[in-house]
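thought: fold this chain, then report.
action: predict
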Amino acid sequence: MSADEIKAKAEVKAKKTVNPREVTVDPATQQMLEKAAKDGVETIFDRAITMKPCNIGEQGTCCKNCSQGPCRLPLPKKGIEGKDERKGLCGATPETIAARNFARMVAGGAAAHSDHGRGVAEVFLAAARRETEDYHIQDIEKLLEIAPDFEVATTVIVDGQEQERDVYEIAVEVGEKALAEWGKQEGEIYYAKRAPEARYKLWQDLDVVPRGIDREIVEIMHRTHMGVDQDYRNIIKQCSRAAIGDGWAGSMIATDLQDILFGTPYPTQGEINLGVLKADHVNIIVHGHEPLLSEMIVVAAQSPEMLDYAKQKGAKGIILAGMCCTANEILMRHGMPIAGNYLQQELAIVTGALDAMVVDVQCIMENIANVAQCYHTKVITTNPRAMIESGDTVHIEFDEHHALEDAKKIVKTAIDNFPNRKAEAMIPAAKEKMVVGFSYEAINYHLGGTFRGSYWPLNDNIINGRIRGIGGVVGCNNARTTHDEGHLIVVKELLKNDVIVLTTGCNAMACGKAGLLTPEAAKVYCGPGLAEVCETVGIPPVLHMGSCVDNSRILMAATQVVKAGGLGKDISDLPAAGSAPEWMSEKAISIGHYFVTAGVYTVFGVGLPVTGAPRFQKYLFEELEDIYGGMWDLVVDPYEHAQKMIKHIDKKRKALGLDKGKERVLMDMADRQKLDAA
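observation:
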């Protein structure tokens, strides 16, 4: 070891050290943090101790939108007494500054998810036109289901007779219309009409139906430029358009077209946590958010050619595991294991057993390249939008026109690296089994079967009180709070109060690691009513619905609940609430806002950058409910967080007249029709 290396290790040890049991509740993460400290490797957990957040940025009142700033408008220590006199150099108020910052976060998050969707649409169109041999239309039923939403006919009249159109001909037209949603300059996005009729009409009345995905994002950036929009209500109106364009267009199109290309998820088993890696195998982790590449890596890693090559290098086989939302994508469709969620990405490398980490876009820490230099892991970037300057990374650009060829090149790079391991691997034993893949179509099937699929059994059990309501708990990890703890406390509190949970993203992984994604979990964690329903139907009490882009599945599930009848006419009528206990990315703000505009009470943990502008905060936390039927809230304590969700669910039950116990009545079709007509 060189003198510089010895000095660097000594400096790391001299810093305030992380207590693994204080920063995470996950045993595998605790074990790897101990190893990282022993190896002298710095991780995000170390930096969270040594680098404190900006207190004015936390409040949302720091403006750097021109070179006259940054203008910093902290709240006075004694709070605001009388008129708020704080202003930036241009005269911008705290409300204007906080609203601009908030809107720019929505724009960033909507751009990330929607750019993902654009990439999927481009590959979908290439497959529909048969310009690539590696992608095909797999779920024809879903293609035919969504075609009318794009006003694409599935039949044609020939010689007076109605005939089915060619599947690929339909796919081309769907792909062209889907891709055009990004550049459209006027009119309305197609999927807005998927929302309940009352919600769609409200959006029209408020003039917030998006015209085109890109247009709304660009307009946010213009309005929040120095000297343009200076009314926080008007700024939020525009970021509502962009957020709806994310949830009901960019993200929803991504989910639908991925399902058609790769198959709509249905329940399958999988395993999760760092214990899925194997010391005697080539270990590859795919990390990021776009399944276009990872689907091909699944094929390549399972090919006889690559398996034989791995054995030639001394390995017994190949383990392909996922990290972050790419993990959810390959898990749902192929049962491939998950190595961990966002805050575990550096620690997967610390095991010493990871031969390649293959990354695409979003939530990828630049520091993985630095950690990889301490071991033997190859970090392989694959997307021209997301390259890493740090460390000794390898760039193998992915092109959908020769996707499998690129995937094999990536897998081969990992196999070639297998003999280069520097030391004996240390892989935690911790891993859990789970049942995942609950698309809204799968929930429909599970509740009613093949011929009578319906959301009515769910509605019926909400009406009769066995299920108190629905909680959508999603979102990231955040190093400013204890890893996974907030997620698990919120979810467990909801379950014991008979609230069924729909989940995506890193929250889904936290639940998986804690054993909450199995049918057996219902008896352990649920109140008696929810436990009975889960046991009868054979589902877990927490339904894993996919990656963060798949939050659109939760929107569609909520819409199906409304359409099933008996629980009001709009999403805002439902006994339901949303939550992101450990959020950290701009995508989370866009997701939160499109749920609020859909009519959902949405609670965030950790913090929200709005607290330095009291009038703006009141607008988000109270006044939006009068406009959209949904509103924001911030509750840091996870127990209180869950209780506020339950209180809101009870408020909605009371408004529907469900707060009093009712005798269960077997309903026939005539009864159902009366509900639908009400």
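thought: worth noting. The chain has four domains: 3-55, 94-262, 274-420, 432-677.
final: tokens above.
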